[in-house]
Write a structure and sequence with these properties.
Elements lengths: L19 H13 L3 E4 L6 H12 L3 E5 L6 H5 E3 L1 H10 L11 E3 L1 H7 L5 E5 L8 H11 L1 E4 L4 E4 L5 E6 L7 H5 L2 E4 L5 H11 L5 H15 L10 H13 L15 H4 L3 H25 L1
Parallel strand pairs: 1-8, 1-9, 2-5, 5-8
Antiparallel strand pairs: 3-4, 6-7
Length: about 290
């Protein structure tokens, strides 16, 4: 019996740094033909994972972005009754063929795709509590029924389903049981250095080290409403380069382009207070040493 998997294996990519545990979870989900649920705070690469899988395996990526008003049925198909009514009154179209007014959603598109696709269901926790349960049958059976046309759509190829959640609300146990789960922890400084190098290979090493030191210092504040994430760090590094900022100019008491890292007034105030307290303590010990 061969130990070689009968599916394409995800091994990360040059543009996406994935841990061994994450790669294993992805490949287990593909092998077991189960949706993969990814959790983690914003900026940990949850959404980009689906793109990395699609690019690495050479597959089409379909993105279903979830909003608070999104209904599960919209991922299957939408029946455009408004357009049909308009055409019946003002157009010269044959409105008797309802199929002309059936538009497949992203899950429906994945089902009818001629080749296996990667389907990203992004931020599922933004929808109402019934949304995940409403998807269970379709994800299990890989089919759905369209009552308007009395036809059942069967998946030609089971898509690789990646579901992301920011943990804004708990997901139903029945839904969780059907998923392979992985939590992406925020990158360590060592892992973050690799990520930065992927995006800015020629950036000054001293600038990266100083920026990372300040970045993780800010993230250590317990009272931040929105901690800066990977995307903010990358934007900040770019701002520092554009602004011609030297590593020596980046200090806890004077941080250039603070608004690139922090997006809330309360967090900026917290940073200013922390920097002021540091200066007071530092001045106190300087006085003692003198």
């Amino acid at each position: 019996m061969s130990n070689k998997p009968d599916f394409e294996v995800f091994r990360g990519s040059s543009n996406y740094i994935a841990s061994k545990e994450l790669m294993n979870s992805v490949n287990v989900a593909i092998a077991l033909k189960k949706p993969m649920l990814i959790k983690g705070e914003p900026g940990t690469g949850k959404t980009m994972l689906a793109r990395a899988i699609a690019d690495t395996l050479g597959k089409q990526l379909l993105v279903w972005g979830i909003k608070s008003t999104t209904k599960a049925s919209e991922g299957l198909y939408v029946y455009d009754t408004v357009q049909r009514l308009y055409d019946s009154q003002f157009g010269g179209h044959d409105v008797s063929n309802i199929r002309h007014y059936i538009k497949l959603g992203k899950l429906g598109e994945a089902f009818v795709s001629d080749e296996q696709a990667v389907l990203l269901i992004d931020e599922i926790d933004k929808a109402d509590l019934e949304f995940p349960n409403d998807l269970l049958w379709e994800l299990d059976q890989m089919s759905f029924y369209i009552p308007e046309t009395k036809e059942t759509i069967h998946a030609r190829h089971r898509p690789i389903v990646i579901i992301t959640s920011n943990a804004e609300k708990e997901l139903p146990d029945a839904f969780l049981r059907r998923c392979i789960f992985h939590y992406i922890a925020f990158p360590s400084p060592e892992a973050m250095s690799e990520i930065v190098r992927v995006h800015y290979a020629d950036l000054d090493k001293k600038l990266i080290e100083k920026a990372m030191e300040i970045f993780y210092w800010i993230r250590s504040f317990d009272d931040l409403q929105k901690k800066p994430s990977t995307s903010e760090l990358l934007d900040w590094l770019q701002a520092l380069v554009i602004g011609g900022v030297e590593p020596s100019e980046i200090k806890e008491g004077s941080i250039p382009f603070t608004g690139v890292l922090l997006k809330k007034n309360q967090d900026i105030d917290s940073l200013l207070n922390q920097a002021r307290d540091r200066r007071v303590v530092s001045g106190f010990f300087d006085a003692i040493r003198r």
